[in-house]
Every structure is written in structure tokens, then in C-alpha cells.
Amino acid sequence: MIVIDAQYCKGCGICIHFCPKHVLEVSETRNARGYYIPGVIDENACSQCGQCELYCPDFAIFVVEEEECGKR
């Protein structure tokens, strides 16, 4: 599962650029600061490599394994 914290995202697109499976895209959704946040195209295509969270300068995106989602 891909979690995007819109509060911290500045819409830089780095996560979109580094996603090897092209799971992310620029969406039409804006956060409170007016930045366009990334949207998930096909979450099932995500290989959970973590490149998006590794390169995000604002720690605004996380990949959470399905098992962990049930524990919350």
C-alpha cells in the first residue's frame, strides 16, 4: 500500500520519476499549500521497492506492506 502524506508533499515529482514500475503520476489533487500531490495509477503494479520513499526529500510517501496495514 502506498501512503502519501499530502501535508508534507511539495509536489516535486521525484517519487514519480524514480518509480521503476510507473505506479505514480501527477494528480489533479492539491494539498493545503496548493501543490499537486502524486496519485497512484495501479497500486497492484507496485513492487514495494521503496524507491519513492528513499528519494522523497520531504518524507511524504511510504510503502507499507499489506500485512502491516491490518495491524493498524
Reported CATH architecture:
2-Layer Sandwich
Biggest sheet features = 2 strands, antiparallel
Number of domains: 1
Structural class: alpha+beta
Please give the count of helices.
3
Run of helices and strands: EHEEHEH
**What integer is the average pLDDT?**
92
Reading off the top of the CATH hierarchy, the class is best stated as Alpha Beta
Sheet with most strands: strand arrangement: 1-4
* Poorly predicted parts: none
Kindly identify the CATH topology.
Alpha-Beta Plaits
Query: Radius of gyration, Cα only, in angstroms?
Result: 12 Å
The span between the termini is 13 Å
The 3D shape can be described as globular
Estimate the strand proportion.
25-35%
Helical amount:
10-25%
Task: Count every beta strand, where a strand is a DSSP E run of 2 or more residues.
Answer: 4
Helices and strands in order, then pairings?
Blueprint: E1 2-4, H1 14-18, E2 24-30, E3 36-40, H2 51-55, E4 61-63, H3 66-71
Antiparallel strand pairs: 1-4, 2-3
